[in-house]
């Protein structure tokens, strides 16, 4: 258990109570605190990313200015369970076989590779950090013993109206409307307050504190004042192309079929499209205010100068684009999510007020935070250390961001292109330099053959079998995958 004494070893015999404070200050210069903020189902509708002209997120925007905003960051998987498992284990879904949801306690039982993993928080704890978390960090909660202190998570996604307002299907949380009356009735508000309190405490070790917010995950219920911030008459609809799916392969339609969700045609016909856009914008503004509570607490605390802050959404979300209100696709709307890394203020080697369009993955968080905090590399990490980008954006970066949705269905995103290849060999290709909405599938155009050959080199070399511990039952394609994995078990 050499690792457990990593920081203590560095301090040597100095750790007497009289000089403990100075000792801790010294330790934190090379081993800063980490505050990790996770926002469920957050797409690029934040002010700093200009994903929607009506987005109002002053707190997330000020965090972005204080560090680096990755405008081309993508989830390892476009669905909560595998995306979070990937961030916390540092392993790709194509290595762990976690393609669908998974119970927290089953992550390390998914397959042999997953069993070897050390959760990000455990790695920090093993190297002398105090760790604490609240809310939705893993898919369900906070995996048992994965943090020293566990503030828990309320069941579900917050208070629910007695009767759904607009959409009522027991297979989904999807519904929208102004509810409940006050912010303090929302679990995200409590999570922010709990985290603020932790930041106000003295800690005798560097800390790693995580806070997992639920909004803008559906139901899009937040108090009326957040709807008032986005008056319905001022709401702009996102770019929408009817019949956009006419040029995608059948398998793309199969894996992205979500029969429990409203379709865009339904929303237009029932005059609900603007209401849904408004409720998602309101949910984002609400969660932004909770993030503000935490950031204000950090700013006022003794930890203000030696704490790195990282904010990420676990994947994006379609708000009507490509005929759906859903995540769970390999397209830009579902893979792209905000990633902000703010360095500790007392380390001037990092850039602030920087935006980068280099393609990166949330998988890169583990090795990046380990490096930022002066811990030894975890050799099993499959992501990339982003610290060189945090120090200068003009470096060479030949990498692509890979998103996986089901075994051997992958999307590769570079600065210019998105290439998708499904398990049956079907393909899509989009050129973002002229088609940021991914409307025109160029995969069959011969002039792009050379481009495709290059993009294919980024596909994962390993495609683990679907783990019998993982499950997703939402459409025929995934129902069959889940059932087959169970039978094989
Ligand atoms: Ca999610
Ligand atoms: Ca199309």
Q: How are the elements arranged and paired?
A:
Blueprint lengths: L5 H6 L8 H11 L2 E7 L18 H8 L2 E3 L2 E2 L5 H10 L3 H4 L4 E2 L9 H4 L4 H7 L3 E6 L13 E2 L25 E3 L8 H14 L6 E7 L6 E3 L1 H5 L21 H6 L8 H6 L3 H28 L6 E7 L4 E2 L5 E2 L5 H4 L3 E4 L11 E3 L3 E2 L3 H8 L14 H5 L9 E4 L5 E4 L3 E5 L5 E5 L17 H8 L13 E2 L4 H13 L1
Parallel strand pairs: 1-8, 1-10, 2-14, 3-15, 5-6, 5-8, 7-9
Antiparallel strand pairs: 2-13, 4-20, 10-13, 11-12, 16-17, 17-18, 18-19
The structure holds calcium ion (2 copies).
The site of one calcium ion (CA) has 6 residues, from loops.
Explain this structure.
With 489 residues, the chain is α/β, with parallel strands linked by helices. It has 2 domains: 30 residues, no CATH class; 351 residues, 3-Layer(aba) Sandwich (Alkaline Phosphatase, subunit A). The protein is built from 17 helices and 20 strands. It has an 8-stranded mixed beta sheet with strand order 6-5-8-1-10-13-2-14, sandwiched between helices. Strands 16-17-18-19 form a 4-stranded antiparallel beta sheet, covered by helices on one side. α3 packs across α12 and α8 packs parallel to α12. About 1% of the residues have low confidence.
